[in-house]
Amino acid sequence: MELTILGCNAAIPTTTRNPSAQVLVANGHHFLIDCGEGTQFQLRKLHVSFMRIEAVFISHMHGDHVFGLIGLLSTMSLFNRSSPLLLVGPPDLQSYIAPLIDKFCDNVTFEVRYHPLRFDKPEVIQQIKSINVKSIPIRHRVDTCGFLFRELPKEPNVKKSAIYKYGLSIADIVSIKNGHPLFDPSGEEIPRSELVKEAAPPKSYAYISDTAYLPDLHNELTDVSLLYHEATFMSDLNDLAAKTLHSTARQAALVAKAANAGKLIIGHFSSRYDNTDALEAEAQQVFLNSTAVYDGFKIVF
Amino acid sequence: MELTILGCNAAIPTTTRNPSAQVLVANGHHFLIDCGEGTQFQLRKLHVSFMRIEAVFISHMHGDHVFGLIGLLSTMSLFNRSSPLLLVGPPDLQSYIAPLIDKFCDNVTFEVRYHPLRFDKPEVIQQIKSINVKSIPIRHRVDTCGFLFRELPKEPNVKKSAIYKYGLSIADIVSIKNGHPLFDPSGEEIPRSELVKEAAPPKSYAYISDTAYLPDLHNELTDVSLLYHEATFMSDLNDLAAKTLHSTARQAALVAKAANAGKLIIGHFSSRYDNTDALEAEAQQVFLNSTAVYDGFKIVF
User: Fold this and answer.
1) pLDDT averaged per 10 residues, chain B (length 301)
2) Tell me, what's the pLDDT at B127?
3) Distance CA A161, CA A159 (A)
4) Pick from A11, A82, A243, B110: most CB atoms within 10 A?
5) B7-31 in b/e burial notation, b at 16+ Cβ within 10 A?
6) Which phi and psi (to 5°) does residue B19 adopt?
7) What confidence score (pLDDT) does residue A247 get?
8) Distance between CA A259 and CA A217 in Å, rounded?
9) Which residues, including other chains, have CB under 8 Å from residue A147's CB and lie 6 or more apart?
10) Nearest chain B residue to A18, by CA
11) Are residues A246 and A188 in the same domain?
12) Do residues B231 and B249 make contact, with C-beta atoms less than 8 angstroms apart?
């Protein structure tokens, strides 16, 4: 998986940070997560082919997460995109964007499909085939979901040496891949390590923004490889975070620690922070493997 | 007057040019002209206080001229703007933006006033007090207006030396400012040059985008100090310009020449042009005082 941060600021953009947007490439599939104003410019500057984006996930209907969508769709149409685009978001995403498409995109060249989110419980989004994508309701001033992307478990590779040594048929290989044992002519089970190279464990990525601190959220994120959790404020503004239903860097780290995440990245910073070192340090006090992201930040995991 | 170009590209933005937007400061009044996506970021990067913007002029309802408006209004509201904002644009500007304000700006902090444009003939927009602003219908694929901003003629200054020498009363001064002659005790008229310093001639700025070449347009722009005219293409794409109702650099220069403009600036470049030197050269062949603008271009005139 590869993640690129296009924007990581809270509602009021700064001269160095754009509003929320990021691109996840998972098994070759390109997903855009949130789409603040200027997302199409950031995609071009960071050399991400936005024609390859298969689906856009909108966490909630606040402007800093959605104002870039009509510009992006409009440019896709000017570029004669033909493949369908899935828009995953709150039910009012469709009632917002469909009239804008009608008004501003002459003869739109591709089909837009909608998947309305639910907010009462997590849900696996069935339209995404090769990656398990789950929406996770979180708590903000409007209905909001986080998203968890998990690779499907991969089959082990049967070793060529074993195929030659034991004269394996295709049926044998399928059987081994499915986890069944193989016996040598004497009836003894051949050690599995001699037969297969296990595939890498499936990777996963969770996007959690915007939300108040949810002490039980980690239950949905157990062992996630990479967690993005919003950290709008530092702990000295704990009350403001609680009031505006945002999180502090420390709270983001508490979620990462409880979830046993591989790594935490924090973003959605208040525009009051020119420099985010102190936010990163606050998170690292709770969960050492924490990084404050920036526009253009890229990580392969 | 001072003009700052925030964006000067046509519909498909490039990595170096944003979609249309510019700021005119005239007699201390700040006017935003068109508002493509990312305008609020450009305003911040170029250190233009967007809280001082009194009016926004939208030439036509194409996305590259209007997608940045909701983000700008939204941020103005987050900054607790209190002074009213005038939006001048096609009648459907209001039906487009008002529902977005309702949806995305909680408790909007300022009043938005609308002035719907007419497209049958030029019109003086009365709401702008100290500057004469005229809308000029031009010809594009949707209803479109250019805008002409003219300073009102300024009164001459009565010289201090004359006030002392002739013991002028306030009534005398008002009379002289209004152009009336003054006579010395012998009944001889005092030369006007001894009494007043004439004010600088009123400056004017015209914004013409997007439009097909209009051979009679110069009649509306006579003696304009600075003319911005779109030049989406070069003359080798004359047919494409005609078909899409855009202009070439040469056509922009023909308008400037016929109007006896002080200076021409061209913009709204097709994204096919990485470098705009050739467009500038093409315009200069017809009208020498032509410049191809860029994002961040600033001119005081």
Assistant:
1) 97 93 95 98 94 96 98 96 97 97 94 97 87 97 97 91 94 93 92 92 96 98 98 98 98 98 98 97 98 98 96
2) 74
3) 5
4) A11
5) bbbbbbbbeebbbbbbbbbbeebbb
6) -70, 170
7) 98
8) 8
9) A33, A57, A59, A88, A133, A134, A135, A136, A206, A207
10) B41
11) no
12) yes
Strand partners, A29: A26
User: What DSSP letter does each residue of A132-153 carry, written as one string?
Assistant: EEEEEEE-SSS-EEEEEEEEPP
Q: What is the pLDDT of residue A194?
A: 93
Residue A106, pLDDT > 90, answer: no
Is residue B26 a contact partner of residue B205, using CB atoms and an 8 Å limit? Answer: yes
Percent of chain A with pLDDT over 90: 92
> Please, which residues 48-87 of chain A have a Cβ atom closer than 8 Å to chain B?
61-63, 67-68, 70-71, 74-75, 78-79
Looking at the fold, whether B144 and B171 belong to one and the same domain comes out as no
For residue A67, which of B112, B103, B236 has the smallest C-alpha distance? Answer: B103
pLDDT at A12 over 90: no
A63 closest CB neighbour out of B13, B61, B104: B104
Task: Locate A98 and state its tokens.
Answer: 């469909």
Q: What is the CATH number of the domain that holds B206?
A: 3.60.15.10
Instruction: Tell which of A67, A108, A140, A142 to mutate to test the B interface (max B CBs under 10 Å).
Output: A67
Range of the domain at B223: 2-154+200-300
Alpha-carbon distances of B151 from A227, B130, B134, B205, B225, rounded to whole Å: 57, 7, 11, 9, 11
Q: Is B166 in the same domain as B273?
A: no
- State whether residue A299 sits within 8 Å of chain B by CB: no
B103 & B236 share domain: yes
What pLDDT was estimated at residue A140?
A: 97
Number of other residues whose CB lies within 10 A of the CB of residue B118: 13
The pLDDT value recorded for residue B202 is 92
Q: Tell me: do B107 and B247 sit in the same domain.
A: yes
CA-wise closest residue to B274 among B292, B254, B253, B255: B292
- Burial class of A114 by CB neighbour count within 10 A (0 to 12, 13 to 18, 19+): middle
Rounded CA gap, A10 and A64, in Å? Answer: 7
Verify that B135 and B259 share a domain, yes or no: yes
Q: Which residue, B292, B299, B281, is CA-closest to B16?
A: B292
Mean pLDDT of chain A: 96
Predicted pLDDT of residue B228: 98
Taking each helix axis from N to C end, the angle separating A91-104 and A69-78, rounded to the nearest 10 degrees, works out to 50
pLDDT of res. A50: 87
Tokens of A14: 């700064």
pLDDT of residue A185: 87
Residue B64 falls in the annotated catalytic set: yes
Phi, psi at residue A256, to the nearest 5°? Answer: -60, -45
Check whether A126 has a pLDDT greater than 90: no
Task: Answer whether A41 sits within 8 Å of B45, measured CB to CB.
Answer: no
Structure tokens at A39: 């997302």
pTM given for the model = 0.91
pLDDT score for A155: 87
| B252, amino acid identity | A
Which residues in chain B have Cβ-Cβ distances shorter than 8 Å to A40?
13, 37
pLDDT surpassing 80 at residue A28: yes
pLDDT at B135: 98
